[in-house]
Amino acid sequence: MVVISFATYEIKIGTILGLLYYEHNNPCGTRGASVGAETNMIKAVWNGKIIAESERTEIVEGNHYFPPDAVRQEFVQPSETRTHCPWKGEAHYYSLLVDGQTNVDAAWYYPDPKPAAKSISGRIAFWKGVKIVA
């Protein structure tokens, strides 16, 4: 595993079953770290279950944002948590519930992002131990 630390967040990169994954500890991070589109099949995995799977994620600040229809709704529960990112806007959260275990606020999305972040409107990203596997 490789750990990359920045002033405001940390990214861990490694492999699971020979597949590349990464995780981080800050959903807002520092603007401009990494932006782009991923065209490989990307999966979000937690507690042994695939939470989301898509060939078309948007990458912003190192986070894969999945289309809403790529997320398995049986594993997500709305949360009342809200945070604010200066350039993306207000983030809303989901908690994950898998096999009786809860991962509070492990997913977030921007329902009405600021113009600079329109590409991730409604898309869902993960953290808090959710593995992103390529």
From TrEMBL:
InterPro entries, from UniProt?
DUF427, DUF427_sf
Please report the stretch or stretches of sequence annotated as the DUF427 domain: 42-128
Gene3D superfamilies linked to this entry:
Domain of unknown function (DUF427)
Q: Which Pfam families does this UniProt record tie to the protein?
A: NTP_transf_9 (PF04248)
Give the superkingdom in one word: Bacteria
- Its recorded name reads Uncharacterized conserved protein, DUF427 family
Species source reads: Methylocapsa palsarum
